[in-house]
Amino acid sequence: MIHGMNHFTVIAENLDETVKFYVDLIGLQQGPRPDLGFAGAWLYADGRPILHVYGDRPVPAGRAGVIDHMAFSARGLPETKARFDASGVPYQLKRQAGALTWQLFCHDPNGAKVELDFDPAETLEA
């Protein structure tokens, strides 16, 4: 019955900083969001709102909870790495054993762990 993931939701300590992280570094686009009666944002990939951000509630003490991380399929490894290098946001870049998928791991401004997966054929050179 399940045919895909609809969206993740992140609770933001600072809504503007969180949106900037996901738009400027991760590469999502801010898009339309219905008036839900509270502050927030919907961030899109390929025309779909895949990340919802709450801007009206406190971040829970156990920030990650039982979800370890969220992973996105990505393109443009050299450009993404350059954005991260210029931003000063810490990250870890490695190749997955066996499949050789490039994996970039980082944390958003709220402590959520984010993984970006790039095709093994990508290189670090632009």
- The sequence of SSEs as H and E is EHEEEEHEEE
Q: CATH topology, anyone?
A: 2,3-Dihydroxybiphenyl 1,2-Dioxygenase, domain 1
Rounded mean pLDDT is 91
Q: Return the CATH class.
A: Alpha Beta
Strand sequence of the main sheet, in spatial order? 1-4-3-2
Instruction: Tell me the radius of gyration.
Output: 15 Å
The fraction of residues in strands falls at: 25-35%
Query: How many separate domains make up the residues?
Result: 1
Helix residue percentage: 10-25%
The major beta sheet can be summarized as: 4 strands, mixed
Low-confidence blocks of residues:
none
The total count of strands amounts to: 8
Distance between the termini: 40 Å
- Class by SSE composition: alpha/beta
Helix count from the secondary structure assignment = 2
The appropriate CATH architecture is Roll
User: Can you identify the CATH superfamily?
Assistant: 2,3-Dihydroxybiphenyl 1,2-Dioxygenase, domain 1
